[in-house]
Amino acid sequence: MSTAKSPTPTFVEVVVPLALPKTLTYKWFSSNGESPVVGSRVVVPLGRKKWTGVIWEIHQIPPEGYVAKEVEALVDDAPILTSQQRDMFAWMADHYMCSLGEMVGAALPAGMKLESTTRIVLHPDASNASEDGLDDQCIMLLDALHVREDMGIRDCSELLGIKHPQRAIRTLLQRGLALAKEELNERVKPKLVSWVRIAQGVEEEALSAALAWAGVKAVAMERLLLTVIEEGEIPKVQAQKRSRTDASTVQKWVDRGILEVEEREPARPSRPGTAKMPQLSSAQAKAYNDVHAGLVARKPVLLHGVTGSGKTEVYTHLIAEALSSGQQVLFLVPEIALTTQLIERLRRFFGDVVHVYHSRFSDRERTETWMSVLQPGAAQLIVGARSAVLLPLPKLGLIVVDEEHEPSFKQHDPAPRYHARDVALWMASRQDVPLVLGSATPAVETQWLGEQGLLQVVPLTERFGGALLPEIFLADLRKEHKQRSMRGGFSKMLRDEMDATLKEGRQVILFQNRRGYAPAYQCTQCGHAATCERCDIPLVVHKTLGGLHCHHCGYHERPAPANCISCGSTALKPQGLGTERIEEELAELFPTARVARMDLDTTRKKKAHAKLLEAFANVEYDILVGTQMVSKGLDFAHVGLVGVMSADRMLTFPDFRSFERAYQMLTQVAGRAGRSGAGARGKVVIQTFSADHWLLHHVVDHNHKALVRRELIERQTYAYPPYVRMIRLTLKHGDPQRVEAGAGVLAARLQQRFGERVLGPDTPALSRINDQHIRQLTLKFERSLAPTQYRKLLQADLEEFSADPRWKRLRINIDVDPA
Ligand code: ADP
Ligand code: ZN
Ligand code: ZN
User: Fold this and answer.
1) Does ligand 1 come within 6 angstroms of the Cβ of 674?
2) Ligand 1 centroid to 438 CA: how many Å?
């Protein structure tokens, strides 16, 4: 009989951010009365290290077969994961066949996982903070901090003679008496920021007079003033940049009493948006109402709006409504680097409630965003790439997924290999979150959901402002080659259209999805192309960088070799057309045109991308040459022509989605032409050797419906998604024989279990990357089967396979719903 004095120990299940198959059981023992909280972080011993994990469950059942170790410390008073998030992670771990640890690892910013190594120091401003009401432990700790440089959790624990010093530490941190050491290093004095605005008391008339004067006498001053008027108030640097002026221009207006400058702390109290949202056109208003009705009926909505129809405007009105009722809105975009235009626009409407979240932000910024969205004081709009779907959003009232067809919503590596749009769809159906997907070229699978009645499809078929969809022409390269009318990579048709467009003073975008000078370096004697030492692909010729480069592993040969390694001949030539080469050919064909190039090589530097776009938008260039970066969501008013240098590679790519992708890519890039209603209808020239291809004809006709119909028939016939669920297993090993053998054994084992649902092993087109040889198995399961069942069986088979010492170093990636 136990007495009431010895309480039953409590056990906690902890998820540490590692690929472990299970949660870990620890004993909870609190010396100072703290109780465990589900969703809070704890520090636990594992192996020889300490880890920060998250409490997943609390119970009274001791583990079988071993004695549970004790939790070292509780890090948070309150959960840092919401219960909705925990449900979602559990579903994701299950669906994407990864561990909860991998989910937590992917979601939490690194800084939040390293708590056990945190050291605290005396706050530099501690003397200004009150020590009233501190308990003995806090005072002891504070005294120690006055004399010691820094203290770790263990030091504090020894000093106080207690196991869990966390509460005392937290109190000091919260009262501004102590500081985490990393924070001290990052704590730079807030630099003041200069803002400019119209000076107090300047009347409308004085302003008009000033503008009129500047318009005649000083156009730079005029530009600056217009920028400030447009914004109301704006950071000085930004005003100068946007108006292409400098500090002296600002000073001139200050001297005249028209502008004034104010120094502000960068962390301003919440600043509301200043700009008014534009009124919706009647077509947009109808779409808005239909979307709204769908959301009220708790159905996810697909806004299928052609390029330039103003989907962003429709979202903006939906967002405004959710924000006004104090909710959080999650706005997912494919690539944050490409959205400076969008974010600026949203900030103008919504001010400081806009948060941007992206994996490339610093750890500290991401941690700050995490904490601020976890406990939202007010409405918030979070704009982010796919990882933002993993944030804690307790007041989530709306999710918008823009360009929902974009493959970048799917994570490839490492696990969890999730698709942010599909996760959003799960949230809509299981957690009742209103969801809007938007695209001009919706994914075939999304359209299918619409046909099944699982989504409400709202069309928006006209462009804003009376602009027409561009007119698309195919340039038949076969014919032009025969007629000898090609000049380098340019057909006569494309050259003529470029000529006409430039003469009208409009801009041209040229699209070629290959960076570098030429995609291959080939021997004209024997046909051999130089390949990467470590990967199974041709090396790319680069002019600016010099030499040959591998785009997969970074391997390069500089300078390019003089002899063919196959036959020794010196007759080596760059083959094919990269963006650099197009730029070079343009210099000859259009010597007076101002040409900009936008690809990974020209945009590596921070902000280079935004600068290029801004310069192009300001018509500082006539022609923009670029890779897929130029296809995405850009909104330029002066583009009259888009040229696609070659559509052929897209049409021969070995993947069941390649036609869909080609349609999307071509339609999106074409959609950059003729967006403003002013001027003639935009034109697009697509160069191809397959001018009869059915897909290109659907692109020319803007016939997305026909594409979807055809694709769905094909996919049903050949058993591809959405009619089956696919799981792809990728096996990698440094030794080609080992991977071949392993793949064979695994395939046989799985075929025994799942029969013909298992395809492969196959050698993918790119069969070796960075000296890792690759084989793939593809599993296709009928939609009528319950995924939970076959996933468990598959998991068990994989575990058994990996336990075999022969396959010890064979890496297996599991990709569910591969994109
Ligand atoms: P989409 O995302 O559908 O391609 P955008 O939302 O970028 O289209 O809109 C295309 C262009 O038309 C943008 O320059 C946008 O500012 C403008 N526009 C769209 N709707 C309106 C509106 N209601 N009032 C004013 N401008 C609009
Ligand atoms: Zn050769
Ligand atoms: Zn390589």
Assistant:
1) no
2) 14
Question: Which residue puts its alpha carbon closest to atom 26 of ligand 1?
Answer: 278
Burial class (CB in 10 A: 0-12, 13-18, 19+), 399: buried
pLDDT tens sequence across 707-719: 999 999 999 999 9
Average pLDDT, the chain: 90
Residue 305: CB within 6 Å of ligand 1? Answer: yes
Q: Which ligand is nearest to the CA of 617?
A: 1
**Interval between CA 769 and ligand 3 midpoint (Å):** 6
Q: Is 307 in the pocket of ligand 1 (CB under 6 A)?
A: yes
Query: Which pTM value belongs to this model?
Result: 0.83
Cβ(115)–Cβ(436) under 8 Å? no
Tell me: pLDDT of 235 over 90. no
- List the one residue out of 104, 102, 97, 25 whose CA is nearest residue 796: 97
Report the run of H or E that residue 439 belongs to, with start and end. Answer: strand 435-439
C-alpha distances out from residue 547 to 364, 512, 566, 574, Å: 39, 21, 19, 11
Enumerate residues 6+ apart whose C-beta is below 8 A from 741: 806
**Which residue in the block uniquely carries the two structure tokens 């779907």?**
389
| Gap between the Cα atoms of 111 and 369, Å rounded | 12
| Ramachandran assignment for 465, one of left (phi > 0), alpha (psi -120 to 50 degrees), beta (any other) | left
- Above 80 in pLDDT, residue 439? yes
**pLDDT (tens digit per residue) in 132-190:** 888 888 888 998 888 888 888 778 888 888 777 777 887 787 777 887 776 555 444 44
Mean pLDDT, range 446-452, rounded to an integer:
97
227 lines ligand 1 (CB under 6 A): no
Find out whether the beta carbon of 310 lies less than 6 Å from any atom of ligand 1.
yes
Helices 658-670 and 704-717: crossing angle, nearest 10°? 170
Q: Which of 281, 312, 340, 436 to mutate to test the pocket of ligand 1 (most atoms within 8 A of CB)?
A: 312
